[in-house]
Design brief:
Blueprint (H helix, E strand, L loop, with lengths): L8 E7 L6 H13 L4 E5 L6 H10 L3 E6 L8 E6 L5 E7 L5 E8 L2 E9 L4 H12 L7 E7 L18 H12 L2 E3 H4 L8 E3 L2 E3 L2 E6 H4 L2 E8 L6 E7 L24 H16 L5 H47 L5 H25 L11 H4 L3 H8 L4 E3 L2 E3 L2 H15 L9 H9 L7 H6 L6 H9 L14 H6 L1 H18 L9 E7 L13 E7 L1 H15 L2 H4 L13 H15 L5 E8 L9 H11 L3 H10 L4 E6 L2 E2 L3 E2 L11 H17 L7 E3 L2 E3 L1 E4 L2 E6 L2 H18 L9 E6 L7 E2 L2 E4 L4 E2 L2 E2 L7 H16 L8 H20 L6 H16 L25 H15 L3 H11 L20 H14 L4 H4 L4 H12 L17 H7 L4 H11 L6 H6 L19 H7 L1 H14 L7 H6 L12 H20 L7 H16 L9 H8 L5
Parallel strand pairs: 1-2, 7-8, 17-20, 27-29
Antiparallel strand pairs: 1-14, 2-4, 3-4, 5-6, 6-7, 8-12, 9-12, 10-11, 13-14, 15-16, 17-18, 19-26, 19-27, 20-21, 20-22, 23-24, 25-26, 28-29, 30-31
Helix pairs in contact: 2-11, 3-4, 7-8, 8-9, 9-40, 15-17, 15-18, 18-22, 23-24, 25-27, 26-27, 28-30, 28-32, 36-37, 39-40, 40-41
């Protein structure tokens, strides 16, 4: 078949040695972008589940990804084809072992067959594999076979001569000759001959075979060392060379917070600020706008210079790595340490890029480890929020960015348009507004003083970090850094704004980012499947926070206790406790109740400014608050961010912007007339318990009505409809739901246009249908958490960060429901089992689980203990409850069981308790048996939690011999060290005597092959032997002591507690050096135990020290002990 390739194309193969790690996936993506790879064959992904595969696909969203899943812990292949080629899939063949992908594609008027190969390691298995491969090579298409063949067909492709005959290699050579396929690497020159470097055994295992007709069009063959794998990238290019460069989009520029550490940038900003404060020729608004533009200009210039410098350093390191591999190809084993040192430096650059990407994506991260959300499974939502591929508009599916942007623009222009005022609008609006009491004179005067510098400082210091800024690109960190110079100027700026009746022009500008409401692909094809979040400029946020802080002091005088969102001192848990208590009171009685949950469609976006400001005038908030809020919403505009492009300007004539600090309080005020209309309406009968009545609860736009008859339900819906008509809101009847509970004669499925159930539903995320028997909920939660945790395996997290992940992402979500629903100890133990297995990365636990719950200073990991949390939550609910309805329920139901806490005028009646209330009584009795009531009622939550942990869990066995020794804070210090996650995990196992030395394995009845003795010394391999008495350890510690000129305590206590104290004259972290030494000794021992190519302790230590040095170099100021790290990187041999 004659082929004329007039288009550029690059194909490559790479064995990644594992791709389950999210960071490794990003690293691979950067490699593909760096070398402009169009088709990539990736081997040894070790991805065996569909969930892991789907997450990886989202990261490689510029490619069509074809997958052969791994079986077990090995194999697995990806074939990635760039979407810009516009390929058409003709056929696909995938084997069942994760070793082969055969893909027929058509693009650029050519027919192609790509075969991704990952051959087995055993000779006989390879022979069978190559025989099956031969049948796929019979084709008239342009054929490219690439991958890891795990054998060599030429003696020159191996670093040492062997007499062993490999029958599979001969078979492979015969197959390729029969099919007229050419091994590109055998005929094309390359300075790096081998593609796999392991110890001193190197080989050209990764190859690309092409059909004869493609050979003449090849213009480049390259072998590129990759720092995160011991295989090289093998790339072949056809056609003219290509250069892809995406032009920068300065409209979406954001300040790189790293610039705030650059002395030159800080100096320039200080000079600009001084110029602005001294300039009197221009109006203050113009000065401020000019200042921000100059900062942006200077930041871009310095960033470009620093980027060029970093890129030059990175290119130097990659070139050096390539040269070292070329030298290593000629003299195997001579440059291994140098290669590892350069790899560590590249790793440091990669870490900076990775973290920077996560920070720019508004993702928080662990200290010196992976970002939390992205690292632990939120990649899909993140990817969907960055790229919208399809949107339905007028019955058609739009795929072009301009069409997608136009569809969103049209939708939000209509949404943010102010509704026309109806006849008699003022009279109807005043009917609702008059129900809200205005502020008293004293309250108004308390919030009506001039803005002070202290208020501005407080607003700046409470700004959240790592948040995406608005259109001007200046982040909260910028204002925090220069607050001393900015505060006086901002004071004058705000004063001028009040005098002129308007804010600076940039205050009114904003961007709106679209966040997916779900991961449902069909829902995300609708423009209303995304939640608009406003990105306001930080100077605007500072002004809005000033107003918010003032409004917080009087908001409780304007908004009743039925609304709990955004109001200081109120909690969402109050609403849920009330709803649950109503249901519990209905049980066993002849009462009935209907709980109606109203959903307001686009509630925040449909707030009509005419109604809102009419209500604010009625409240008589004072000139500062009212005029300030008016300034914030006077003439706001926004531009939508769609696929990293900006829409046209959209005027915000309605809405309270989600992302503005004022929005929660303004919406609470906006909704208050509706709540009071229901509360004060005598036609609506709420649920009454003793003298207390519950009619309405609200958390932001989540509104719940409690009615005891159907006319009340009908009236509540009618009032809501009348309110919506005046205020611009609308009821979403499809999402609004209700349920009947109690002795209803009839329970219609549809009533007042609302769908109803005969059993409770979720309320504010809590399954009220399980308020009687919570077992099914917790059982399903166990399954969900086990599934989530299984997706986290393979993440590069230390044992400390795994505990942090459990506390933040698992325990916190469980505790949210645990606060209001009872939970048995059986389920709690099941959750603890999942936590422990995830923390240990094992299906079994190597030590007593209770030790994990101890604080760090006592040798534990501070893992959240759900039963202790349950005790504290139940007691503080009893202690802190203030709502009259909840107090009445507790007094009536618990007075018999807790007579020492509740005194009633009537005789307390005995009643059988169950569920939540029974847990409260059990908690009080449990705590009273251990602490006095006086102590309990004068302690805070944190202190009680710590007291319970200390009371319930004994001192761990591994700590008992050293209780009187120094260094008890060792786990605190290790957790904060800038060492690899693996080193931190290693030390915790060493400290807790769970390190898998042979003697320990033998004690646990785990099979140890051959002998429990050390291979070097023929003595039992214990912890003390490995790190103190072994010959390797003895010589290593001697050299290290001489190198850093410090006598290290190499004793049983010393290696477990690293007992060093810093002083004002010497703050050298010798514990860090000792930890690196311990980890290096263990890592080299494990390399030997696992029969990997041998590496000396010195080699491992130098590599670890180089990685730490590359991090310490970024410290400000650079510590004096950096020279010790330089010496460690050059540690002499022994």
């Amino acid at each position: 078949m004659a082929t004329a390739l007039t288009f550029p194309m690059c194909v490559a193969t790479l064995n990644v040695r594992g791709l389950r790690n999210v960071r490794r996936q990003w690293q691979l993506r950067h490699v593909l972008e760096q070398y402009n790879i169009d088709v990539a064959a990736v081997q040894e992904t070790k991805i065996s589940s569909a969930s892991d595969a789907n997450l990886a696909i989202e990261i490689f969203r510029d490619y069509d990804v074809y997958i052969s899943q791994a079986r077990g812990a090995s194999a697995g292949c990806f074939l990635l084809v760039r979407k810009l080629l516009n390929p058409t899939l003709m056929s696909l063949h995938v084997d069942g072992e994760g070793r082969l992908i055969c893909c027929d594609l058509s693009f650029h008027s050519h027919a192609w067959r790509f075969v991704c190969v990952y051959a087995p390691s055993k000779v006989n298995d390879r022979k069978d594999f190559f025989l099956s491969l031969a049948s796929l090579l019979n084709t008239h298409r342009n054929l490219i076979v690439l991958g890891d063949f795990n054998c060599v067909c030429d003696a020159r492709d191996h670093s040492y001569i062997t007499n062993r005959y490999d029958a599979s290699a001969a078979l492979l050579q015969q197959v390729m000759n029969d099919k007229n396929l050419i091994d590109v690497g055998a005929h094309a020159p390359s300075s790096v001959r081998f593609t796999h470097f392991q110890g001193v055994s190197h080989a050209r295992l990764d190859r690309v075979y092409v059909s004869v007709n493609l050979w003449s069009h090849i213009h480049n063959y390259a072998v590129k060392p990759i720092f995160f794998t011991d295989h090289c990238l093998v790339a072949v290019s056809w056609g003219p060379q290509k250069f892809r460069k995406v032009p920068p989009n300065w409209e979406l520029w954001k300040l790189n917070v790293q610039l705030l550490r650059e002395e030159c940038f800080v100096k320039i900003v200080n000079e600009l600020l001084r110029e602005v404060t001294q300039c009197r020729q221009l109006p203050i608004f113009a000065q401020w706008e000019m200042f921000k533009e100059k900062v942006k200009y200077e930041a871009i210039g310095i960033s470009c210079e620093l980027t060029q410098r970093k890129n030059a350093e990175k290119r130097y390191l990659y070139d050096l790595l390539h040269k070292l591999h070329a030298f290593e190809s000629q003299e195997p084993g001579l440059y291994v340490d140098e290669i590892n040192s350069v790899r560590a430096q590249i790793q440091k650059h990669d870490t900076e890029i990775y973290r920077g990407a996560m920070i720019r994506s508004r993702v928080t991260r662990f200290t010196d480890e992976e970002p939390t959300k992205t690292a632990l499974g939120d990649e899909k939502r993140y990817a969907l929020s960055k790229q919208i591929l399809q949107i339905e508009s007028d019955g058609y599916i739009c795929t072009e960015t301009c069409q997608i942007r136009a569809a969103f623009e049209e939708y939000y222009k209509n949404l943010f348009t102010a509704a026309e005022l109806q006849d008699e609008y003022e009279e109807k609006a005043d009917h609702f507004i008059a129900l809200v009491p205005p502020l008293q004179e004293d309250d108004r005067l308390s919030v009506d003083g001039p803005i002070t510098r202290e208020e501005i400082r407080f607003a700046i210091t409470t700004l959240q970090k790592n948040k995406t800024p608005g259109p001007d690109g200046l982040s909260g960190e910028f204002y925090i850094k220069f607050q001393d110079l900015l505060i006086p100027f901002l004071e004058q700026l705000f004063k001028e704004a009040y005098e002129r009746g308007e804010l600076p022009p940039s205050f009114y500008q904003g961007h709106t980012t679209l966040i997916p409401k779900s991961t449902d692909t069909e829902a995300l094809k609708k423009v209303n499947g995304y939640r608009p979040i406003s990105l306001c400029n930080v100077d605007y946020k500072i002004f809005a926070k000033l107003l918010t802080n003032r409004l917080q002091t009087v908001i409780t005088k304007c908004v009743g206790d039925h609304q709990t969102c955004g109001i200081r001192g109120r909690s969402i848990q109050t609403n849920i406790h009330i709803a649950r208590s109503v249901l519990e009171c209905i049980d066993g009685s002849m009462d009935q109740v209907a709980l109606l949950q109203i959903d307001l469609a686009k509630a925040f976006d449909k707030v009509q400014h005419a109604f809102l400001f009419r209500l604010l005038r009625h409240l008589q908030l004072g000139d500062v608050l009212y005029n300030g809020i008016s300034l914030c919403y006077k003439k706001c505009t926004t531009r939508l961010i769609v696929n990293r492009t900006l829409s046209d300007i959209i005027e915000l004539n309605s809405s309270v912007r989600q992302g503005c600090p004022l929005s929660p309080l303004l919406f609470a005020i906006y909704l208050e007339p509706l709540c009071l209309s229901v509360l004060l309406n005598r036609s609506i009968r709420g649920y009454r318990y003793e003298a207390e009545e519950i009619k309405v609860l609200a958390y932001a736009d989540d509104i719940a009505f409690f009615c005891i008859d159907k006319p009340s339900v009908q009236e509540a819906v009618n009032i809501t409809l009348r309110f919506c008509e005046i205020a611009g809101a609308s009821i979403n009847f499809d999402k609004s739901r209700g349920f009947w509970l109690g002795m209803w004669a009839q329970t219609p499925a549809v009533f007042s246009n609302i769908h109803w159930n005969a059993s409770p539903m979720k309320y504010l995320g809590v399954p009220l249908d399980n308020y009687r028997n919570s077992g099914p909920h917790w059982t399903s939660a166990i399954t969900a958490i086990r599934r989530k945790v299984s997706a986290w395996h393979g993440r590069d997290l230390s044992i400390f960060s795994r505990v942090k992940a459990c506390n933040i992402f698992l325990a916190s979500k469980l505790v949210y429901v645990l606060q209001v629903l009872h939970c048995s100890r059986v389920h709690i133990q099941a959750f603890h089992r999942i936590f422990a297995c995830f923390i240990w990365c094992s299906s079994w636990e190597p030590m007593r689980r209770d030790n994990l719950f101890l604080p760090l200073e006592k040798g534990g990991l501070s893992l959240a203990h759900l039963f202790v949390r349950q005790l504290v939550l139940r007691f503080f609910y009893l202690k802190d409850v203030r709502h009259p309805f909840l107090l009445a329920v507790l007094r009536n139901r618990l007075s018999y069981h807790l007579p020492f806490l509740y005194v009633t005028t009537s005789v307390a009646r005995e009643s059988q308790l169950w569920g939540f209330l029974k847990e409260i009584v059990d908690t009080v009795n449990f705590l009273k048996a251990r602490f006095t009531l006086q102590y309990l009622y004068n302690i805070d939550r944190t202190s009680l939690t710590a007291a319970l942990v200390n009371n319930l869990f004994p001192e761990p066995v591994y700590r008992q011999p050293y209780l009187l020794f120094s260094g008890q804070d060792v786990l605190f210090r290790v957790r904060r060290m800038c060492v690899s996650p693996a080193a931190k995990t290693f030390f915790f196992k060493l400290h807790t005597a769970t390190l898998p030395v042979k003697a320990w394995l033998n004690e646990k009845a785990i099979y140890v092959p051959w002998t429990v003795n050390c291979r070097l010394c023929n003595q039992p391999e214990t912890i003390e032997h490995c790190f103190i008495h072994c010959r390797d350890a003895f010589y290593f510690w001697d050299i290290l002591k001489r190198t850093i000129r410090k006598d290290l305590p190499i004793t049983a206590h010393g290696i477990r507690f690293l007992p060093f104290k810093k002083s004002l004259t010497n703050n050298t972290p010798y514990d860090l050096f000792m930890l690196l030494g311990l980890y290096s000794l263990w890592k080299s021992r494990m390399i030997d135990r696992h029969a990997e190519p041998p590496r000396s302790t010195r080699s491992v230590f130098r590599e670890e020290a180089a990685q730490v040095r590359s991090v310490v170099e970024t410290f400000e100021p650079v510590p004096e002990w950096l020279t010790l790290l330089d010496a460690c990187v050059c540690l002499p041999d022994f």
